[in-house]
Design goal:
With about 160 residues, the protein is of the alpha+beta class. The protein is built from four helices and nine strands. The radius of gyration is 15 Å and the shape is globular. The relative contact order is 0.18. The structure holds coenzyme A. Keywords: Transferase.
Amino acid sequence: MIIRPERDDDRSAIGAVTAAAFAGHPHSDQTEPLIIERLRAGGALSLSLVAEEAGEVIGHVAFSPVTVTPAAAGWYGLGPISVRPDMQGRGVGSALIRRGLDMLRGSGAAGCVLVGEPGYYQKFGFRNEPALAFPGCAPQYFMALALTEAMASGTVAFDPAFGLG
Ligand SMILES: CC(C)(COP(=O)(O)OP(=O)(O)OC[C@H]1O[C@@H](n2cnc3c(N)ncnc32)[C@H](O)[C@@H]1OP(=O)(O)O)[C@@H](O)C(=O)NCCC(=O)NCCS
């Protein structure tokens, strides 16, 4: 398995893997493939990595800029992240996350936030941070990780592609 940046000819495979991973997911409205397309079209897909095995895309993770109000620059949101259902539980998602965070850190990103299951993301260093708020989300599911700067404080907004307002 290799982790590499997306290429133009990966786009439909990324959509298919994402749709399959989120099909029937209790917290999904199945718009995740569309979110990735909107991020790409809006120039907000800052980092898009695929996991490839035997020439096939088996996983994908997207990172996009988030705004922190009143003021913190260089923060990103992780997601959507997907691993093809028959390939889950083998470390593919972890490899995508670790590589993505390494690349963000290497590019000087201040930090990363996400909405997800705390039990999964804690092992990468993500924590609930009371000083950083994401209105509309139960606080235990909103998590942050400082990469090259101190933890930010304020209110986070994801790219409009997420349709979260
Ligand atoms: C979440 C997802 C990307 C993880 O990818 P993965 O390749 O299956 O994960 P990994 O193999 O790297 O990690 C598996 C480990 O995480 C644990 N894990 C997986 N999902 C978890 C969850 N929701 N909560 C807690 N632990 C979880 C597994 O028990 C396993 O633990 P272990 O390593 O101690 O055995 C993948 O399961 C997926 O595509 N799910 C459907 C889409 C989704 O939910 N995306 C995230 C939305 S927040």
